[in-house]
Specification:
The chain has about 500 residues and is an alpha+beta fold. The protein is about 40% helix and about 20% strand. It has an eight-stranded mixed β-sheet. The protein has a five-stranded mixed β-sheet with strand order 15-14-16-17-18. Helix 1 crosses helix 4, helix 5 packs antiparallel against helix 10 and helix 6 runs antiparallel to helix 7.
Amino acid sequence: MTDLTRPRLPRGLADRGPADLAATDRIMRSIRATYERYGFEAVETPLIEYTDALGKFLPDQDRPNAGVFSFKDDDDQWLSLRYDLTAPLARSFAERFDSLPKPYRSYRAGPVFRNEKPGPGRFRQFIQFDADTVGSKSIAADAEICMMAADALEDLGIARGDYVIRVNDRKVLDGVLESAGLSGEANAGRRLTVLRAMDKFDKFGTEGVRLLLGRGRRDESGDFTKGAELGEAEIDRVMGVLDAKAGDNAATCDRLDAEFASTPRGAEGAGELREIAALVAAAGYADRVVIDPSVVRGLEYYTGPVFEAELTFTVTGEDGQPIRFGSVGGGGRYDGLVARFRGEPVPATGFSVGVSRLAAALRAIGSPILGAERPRGPVVVLVMDRGPEDMARVMRLVATLRTGGIAAELYLGDAGMNAQLKYADRRHSACAVIQGSNERDAAGGPVVMIRDLVLGAELAKGSKDRADYLELRQKAQFPVPEAGLVDAVREVLARH
């Protein structure tokens, strides 16, 4: 006997069952409807791109080619699984530049892959749903993306007040870094280290970020992350940005102008945020789209406004402790990404929803968009006799149900009736159809027995009221002529 291969799943990946897939489908249908309401159209890009076309923009890359799954093809070319949906869009837009309308508004959805250390809630494969406007330098495009993100969350059943779209501008951050003495190409690496440290504010808090801005931070496992090695004055300057949010958007913009717009770059970013604040206020979104200078976003390719969709409610976890889901999406302006292919500036902005994380949050609040915890399985037609003629009869019953638009399955195992009914329960079926010799040879002509499996389960629990018990029993299993099969099954399915 040969050695058996042990079934095992790589870390950071997950098998997904019917309930998860159905919930994901409902979420994506809702988001799709929102995006299309804003005039975005569908496009699909491949899972695999040339590595140099994707570029190296992921956060937390401490070594070359980290963060992506890459391999060589038979032409000795490096290929990579996409790590997001934006970099492939930039390549696609540049390749089809002459044939596309400008601005170009599109949405995409699908799995992306990160070759990172997996952990709780951190997967190597997950689903994103993006919408982007390419070819418009208007700040109105950024404001519109933020408003669409708010509508997408509300359309999914997240109440106003339970989320916020937080907005900042990378130019403000660039201005602060310039004023801290980190301008020029020689300081590019340190600037990136500072931005990544700031992006950890929600995770590590003030003290953790200060350590990352200074000499570095050692985590609970003992791993040490080297810091940006700023002085105390520069650290105070950077930390001031993270705490610059005021009472409302106008007040926050005033504070940014007064304290963090001392450089031309910083002043430009503060002006863009003031314009976004005015646009969202005019459209009635000022209570949901909030200027917040603590938003950084980890990807390197952002060049202007950046956004974060954050859930603000808390739920109780399995351990009894409160859980706050935080960010479920984000994006920003990336005016230099398409330019990598064309050698000329091509403005662009977009937003990405993390579908898997959002699904977990919606499940926690019991959002109706998810529907049943697990979708109902097909009607199961039982097999009581297995001769050729008998099988032909039940196959005809299954075909009749399917022709009537009802999902139906013929039991193809070799178990008896009770085991077949248990099988139907495991398939989460609402209804089973039975026809044995007694039903085929009925005096008035062939009949089928319809079993309502949901009511049958209630009946098995017992009813204290005899009248209720008898009513349930009559509805839980009853005969109908073969000609009435489809109507009878529809009636049972309609109950559930």
